TrEMBL record:
Main localization of the protein described in the UniProt heading: membrane
Residues covered by the Rieske domain: 254-323
Organism in which the protein naturally occurs: Longivirga aurantiaca
Coiled-coil stretches: none
Protein name in UniProt: Cytochrome bc1 complex Rieske iron-sulfur subunit
Secretion signal, residue range per the UniProt entry: none
Compartment(s): Cell membrane
Amino acid sequence: MSDTTSTDLVTHGHGEEAQFPLPPHHLRITDTDPRAARRAERQVAIMFALSALLVIAFVVVYFTVPVENFVNLGPIGIVNASNLLLGLTFGGAIFLIGAGAIHWAKKLMADEEIADERHPVGSPQEDKDAALEAFQAGLAESGFAERKLVRRTLIGALALFPVPLIIFLKDMGPPPGTVLRETVWKKGDRIVVDVTLQPIRPEDLRVGTLVSASPEGLTELQEEQGTMNARAKASIILVRMRPEEIRSQQNDGWDFNGILAFSKICTHVGCPIALYQQRTHHLLCPCHQSTFDLADSGNVVFGPAARRMPQLPITVDDEGYLVAADGFQEPVGPSFWERGA
């Protein structure tokens, strides 16, 4: 490797010589003005120091902000305050290390053009010695040894950087217990259309119709709890088919005049599902293409899902509206280590 000037020519190609003059080298302000170089050095050091402070802030947030706290961010919606602050502090720490390294390279490290001629894969010893020499020269040109302020703040930032990763290990337990096994559905809960909250009568659904629905009163419960956890587990889909098309024997009698209710959450990794093929009665998950046969108890017919779609038994109340005949008889949502499949 050797330094080149604007008149040097680069040779490359498979035995063919292509001559391309390198552009003239332009000095940066930090190459000619020591004050500008010191200013850039301070800027890099500030970024590294702020990164270290954000890691410390991450630790403080993790242990002081309750996980039950939520904040309303308007158009974004209601979010967990702890998750928001942890993401901002750790994300900011990562960004500042990267931004500081880029600023260091652009303003302070040497930027001379270098031409590297091609050579066989097996390098001779003299090339290895030259590479080591070039590495040592690059280390000197980077200013890592000379610029103590940058070096110390970078080492400090990198030393604290793994701390959040270690703290994250605490969130691997304890097991979720029964939290993921229960929903708010219970006998007599009226079924309403999502968003509009309109109660549903059987005559509102034509054959082939699929509707996203939830239990009545879920919105109030969500506002009371300040979380969408209940909705994430209680969302269902209603689908209507001709009674004679239902082949299910496992949950015989759980439909009402051909209307069936299933959980909306895929049993693979929990993606919401609403892609329905009327002719085959198949429900397709858009994430990993797991396919469920709604005419046959929601059993899996294709894809990585290992459990069928949980079915909700339904009937009508005295006013003729669709209601739950009972809660889910099996856990909804994705499979995990305590569910076997």
